[in-house]
Amino acid sequence: MKLDAIDLRILEAIQADGRITKLALAEKAGLSPTPCWMRLRKLEKAGIVTGYHARIALRRVAPVASVMMEVTLGNHRQADFDRFERAIGSIPEIVACWSVGGGVDYILKVVTADIDAYQRLVDELLGRELGIDRYFTYIVTKTVKEETVLPLGSLLPQAQVDEV
User: Fold this and answer.
1) How are strands ordered across the β-sheet holding 106-112?
2) What is the DSSP letter of 49?
3) pLDDT of amino acid 127
4) Whole-prediction pTM value?
């Protein structure tokens, strides 16, 4: 789907405020409410807008341990990757998982109540025989930046944004 400047303004506005009213969104997009709402629905149906979420200041709710974990599998057959990814997808404490190129296979972001809970999770993963050959743990001591808003204006080629 080709996006134009109006679509981009809609996406930027809903990223900044997922609870924005129809009227306010239309004003930011430079459209009347009905056409703006129709464009938003089209973006949703195309799978460009995949959901609306609240950002939670988790450390204000409870003390937590945030951990980045590198994982390398022992074998690199598609079945090995599939088995690992299926298992990771079912564990709520693993809040992000990226398959990466380079010296490791995956980087995971894990959030647990404390380091002991993290270690129990790792022990469980190892016990499930998911093919983990080695892993490295990095404890997050301070979050410097963690954005959920994507810089759409600088990511999309200008030609794609200009098309209507």
Assistant:
1) 94-99, 106-112, 65-73, 132-139
2) S
3) 96
4) 0.82
